[in-house]
Amino acid sequence: MAKAKTRKSKSKKKRIAKSASKKSAPKMKLFYSPIHGFIHKVLVAAHETGIWNRLEFVPVLPMSDGFSIAAINPLHKVPTLALHDGTVLYGSQTIVEFFDSLSKKKKLYPKAGPARWDALRRLALADTTFEVTVNVALELNEKPRRQSVFDWYWPKIVRALDQMEEDAKKLKGFDIGQASTLHALSYLDRQLGKSLPAPVPRGYDWRDGRPKLTAWWKKAIKRPSVKSHFKKDYVGDQSPEFAQQKIAEVLRAQGKRVSAPTRVDYAPG
Ligand SMILES: N[C@@H](CCC(=O)N[C@@H](CS)C(=O)NCC(=O)O)C(=O)O
To answer: What is the total count of domains within the chain?
Structure first.
């Protein structure tokens, strides 16, 4: 019984990978935040792996659109990827690894060995730096602000930046760790443009005293995968109605009943 179940789930997995890997397969829907003021790891990965043209972009702002995407992602978060058969993947780490699995030529994940573990460590370093910066940014909108949030998170950001400077001395090629580093640094730049409270020094620039990271950044932002979206306006339908229509399509592909979208009345900030 257990064996039969394993066989069944293995063949389902194979079907997912196979149907999505066909170039002729219907487009996958990428629900993502269309704010291009910073670099998106998932968009960089989509471009680098050659998946870009196989995506239908669906803009969603989960904090301000006023409706929920929980029908397809219980976490009500973007990025969320939906395949044409209704399979949904979420968590940016899952999505970028899935893109990588579809690409035969360009790989963002080195094969098992020291280079892979190093890329994954840098991925975790940058992803967490981004998340920590989001926490700091959200606190800016709170009244009153909790000073402990800034005191607790800012030293983590500084130490992570110092580690990125060390890492930049040894970087080769382009991998998933670097895609995430671009995401984290560009988002930090966006937030540092606002006046952040102490202990963040006034006018702080992560480039100061970090020449290797700065040189790497200057080169990396010239990559076509970055230029594809960074500081470019999103072109396309950004209406909540469009996103809801796309959610309904995913639910139909899953054989589920489509009901009216759930409203979200509260969002931080
Ligand atoms: N760990 C997740 C984080 C995703 C995330 O937090 N996305 C934000 C982008 S705005 C979001 O959807 N927030 C809405 C919410 O937390 O309700 C990932 O890497 O995909």
So the answer is: 2
β partners of residue 32 = 59
| 62 in contact with ligand 1, CB cutoff 6 A | yes
* Mutation choice for ligand 1 from 40, 78, 265, CB with most ligand atoms inside 8 A: 78
My answer on whether 128 and 172 are in the same domain is yes
Best residue among 77, 125, 187 to mutate for probing ligand 1's pocket (most ligand atoms within 8 Å of CB) is 77
Q: Is the CB of 138 under 6 A from ligand 1?
A: no
Its pTM stands at: 0.91
And the tokens for 230?
């960074």
Question: Cα separation of 121 and 19, whole Å?
Answer: 31
Domain check: are 89 and 133 in the same one? no
Q: Is 12 within a domain?
A: no
Q: Which domain does 220 fall in, by range? A: 114-227
Residuewise pLDDT in 10s, the chain (269 residues): 344 444 555 555 555 555 566 667 899 999 999 999 999 999 999 999 999 999 999 999 998 888 899 999 999 999 999 999 999 999 999 999 999 999 987 899 999 999 999 999 999 999 999 999 999 999 998 999 999 999 999 999 999 999 999 999 999 999 999 999 999 999 999 999 888 899 999 999 999 999 999 999 999 999 999 999 999 999 999 999 999 999 999 999 999 988 877 888 766 75
Q: At what angle do helices 176-192 and 92-102 cross, to 10 degrees?
A: 140
Is the dihedral angle over the CA atoms 30, 31, 32, 33 positive or is it negative?
Answer: positive
CA 178 to chain centre: 13
